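ESCALATION

Customer reports they have been waiting on this structure for their group meeting. Please prioritize. Original submission:
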Amino acid sequence: MRPFSFVHVADLHLGYEQYNLAARRDDFDQAFHEVVEKTIELKPEFMVIAGDLFHHARPLNLTLERAIQNFKRLKEAGIQVLAVDGSHDAAPNVITGTILNPLDTAGLVYYLPRHEKACWKNESCYVYGIPNFRTRQRTETELPVFYDMKKPSPHLDMFNIFVFHMILEIPEILKGRPETMAEASPQCVPDGFDYYAGGHLHTPWQFPFKGALLVYSGSTETVSYEDAKTQKGFYHIEVNQTGEPEIDRIGLETPRLFKILERDCTGYPPQKVVELAAEMIKEADEPGAVLIPVLKGTLPAESTRREIDLAKIRGAAQKALIVRPFVSMMEKGIPEETIRSIFEGEMKDLKTKSYEYFMQFFKQRHKDRDAERNARLALNLIQLLTKGDEEKARTLLEETLNEN
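Update from on-call: job pushed to the front of the queue and completed.
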């Protein structure tokens, strides 16, 4: 086998205007620009993008233009780009398809699932990629159909790469994470490959898998504060003449600085919580940084999260790009007598009772109008999930978040 090398990157989320800031959208573009710069220096034969190239299925023209400029640089350097779609840039419907299709037609990206056998190969390497189906139910239903149409066929005399964008149900991956994150069982992934190039997990991760290696490259910028502490980057893999891969982590220097400031405020009244948070912000204030004060603990009786002055916390910084408080403090809850008054006595329709309970719950935290909206949302989600309609529940949540 002729030695060669390739780059594995994922979760670029180009176009993500995080916190509604154009500066954050530019950050994601800048991270990709650095990936391209470093890739050209490494001179691999090809780049694998394991999904979520874009944050939206229909990116802004500016985002698309910048991506095209970077892909043109890779093409001019003789580096082929092989990609699959992720949960964010998956095709929104069967009519329009994913934005990766026109990029494929333009010769800038080779969108693996689109091609006849969902693969690309040369004399040393076979690369096979599957589309993203967004939910576990759809994955387990539609992926076997995809395999029937475009059968994976790893070659014994080549180095074989399987490209996908989903979190597999593996205990080591799910440790410390909710089990609902798993989108497919390991049985959904075929045997016979030498390198399984994954996307969707924002922290880099390597693990022995099916006699080979399962690798998630992690994100190139901070998508959520949970992955802020992880160094952003991608992998460069060199394969020798015997087919043995050597993996090197390539760190990025451009991602914006995030500072996670955690504080247990148990027992403090809302006003004191605000004072403590403001002190943390002033101490951590730094030009251009994103500050995330995470306030934990339990509030005193009869105190609510609504009383925590978030505007005052945000205003404590003078140099940071933005302050985004995350309040996870518990309240004492709805009094037992209130719950009993709703669910005991003359039996009423369960839907009505549930709505009354949600109203009481949300009124402790929100104004009446917002409490009513959230109560109806909770009720609708329960009904959809009870019917097993996870796709509609997810769509409803996404629409609500976009509205907010």
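Sent to customer with the following note: The longest strand covers residues 159-165.
Escalation resolved.
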